[in-house]
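Course assignment 3, question 2. Fill in each field.
Student: A.L.
Task: Predict the tertiary structure for the chain below.
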Amino acid sequence: MMISVKDAEGKQYDAAKHSEVYGLQKITEAESKRTTVCYSYFLPNGGAEMCSSPKERIYYVIKGSITVCGPDEKHVLNEGDLIYIAPGEERNMVINGGKPAEVLVTIVTP
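Answer field:
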């Protein structure tokens, strides 16, 4: 089964341990069985607290700049960049440059 989602379609969501972010779930686990795809719009002071998840995550920066930090590493991501985050890996995120950021988030359940 193929799933098509138009630009303004999707279910609004609030991401746990995130701040100043608005988003739409484009595809959910209920539809795809293992994958959730979200479009996240972060305001300039937005971000995410340090935490981990049992799920794989991929952040693709559509617009703006973000920094994703782990306990011993730091990754600055700009438009067109992506990062893979393994299950159980701690990370936080901050928005750079005083401008909003748009991030496509893919979450894969084991």
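Instructor remarks: The longest strand covers residues 35-51. Residues 11-108 form a domain with the Jelly Rolls fold (CATH 2.60.120.10).
Grade: pending
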